[in-house]
Every structure is written in structure tokens, then in C-alpha cells.
Amino acid sequence: MLGPVGGPERPDAELAQRAAEAVPAGFPSPAQGYYDGPVDLNRHLMRDPSATFLVRVSGESMVGAGIFDGDELVVDRSLDPVDGSVVVAVVNGELTVKRLRRGPGGTSLHPENPAYPVITVAEHDDLVVWGVVTRCLHRV
């Protein structure tokens, strides 16, 4: 499922609040708990809103990268994919999320789960890198 992200600007009063400092995952600090003001998640999560989409993940081939079934990926179509990028790709007409590998032996798409095979892109295959994954959103 693909969909555009963004929307109209909203007044600061309607935006989520942003903590002034990083929150440790260990013991809480009594000095924390104050906020640094509103945060617009569109600005925080996207470099180019006009080229950014949300894609819902189906399957478990990327669990080693922290991407799980049902997660939503923030995908930027304006970025150039490089070796090692996690990408949404279309291989012979089928969408997939994998880690892009480019080398002297050619291009391949690697899962982050050993139960799934590497997709080696042959010369006759049709590969389109649809976008580069920049964030993974999942429920806790």
C-alpha cells in the first residue's frame, strides 16, 4: 500500500511536543521531563515531502534490520540509492523491501533474515529501485 505523506502546515499548538534532550533507556533522570517546544513530524521525518511516501511492510524478510510485518516505512524517492541502502524495489513487476548491494558481480537485493533468499538481478530482469527507506515506524 503506497500513499503520499505531508499535508498542509499546521499551527504550532496542534503539533506534537519535542523533548529538549535525548531520553535514556536506562534509569530515569529527575532533570528530564521538560519540553523544548512543538515538533512538526513532517519536517522531522522527511527531507522532501513531495517525494516521500509511506509503505506498509508485509512479511518478515527484513527483521534483522528492525523492519517487521505491519511496520510503515518512510520512503524518499528523491534519494539516490547506494550500496547498502534499504530500498523499496520492483523486480519483474513485484514490490519488495531489501538491502541493495552493488558490486563487481552485479546487483543483488539482500534480505535481513536468513530464511529468505538473496535476489540476484540477472541481465534480463527488470529492476526499478522505487525509493530509499529513511525511517521505519512501528508500534511498541
In short:
By secondary structure, the chain is mainly beta. It contains 1 helix and 10 strands; from the N terminus they run βββαβββββββ.
Summary tags:
single chain, 140 residues, mainly beta, Umud Fragment, subunit A, 2 domains, eight-stranded antiparallel β-sheet, two-stranded antiparallel ribbon, 1 helix, globular
Strands, helices and their partners?
Elements lengths: L1 E3 L11 E4 L15 E5 L1 H5 L6 E5 L15 E5 L9 E6 L2 E10 L2 E5 L8 E2 L6 E11 L3
Antiparallel strand pairs: 1-4, 2-3, 4-5, 5-10, 6-7, 6-10, 7-8, 8-9
Describe the structure.
With 140 residues, this protein is mainly β. The chain has two domains: 2-7 and 16-45, no CATH class; 49-137, Umud Fragment, subunit A (Ribbon), CATH 2.10.109. The protein contains one helix and ten strands. It has one helix at 41-45, and strands at 2-4, 16-19, 35-39, 52-56, 72-76, 86-91, 94-103, 106-110, 119-120, 127-137. An eight-stranded antiparallel β-sheet has the order 1-4-5-10-6-7-8-9, with no helix packed on it. The chain has a two-stranded antiparallel ribbon with strand order 2-3. Strand 6 and strand 7 (94-103) form a beta hairpin. The longest helix has 5 residues, at 41-45. It starts with a strand and ends with a strand.
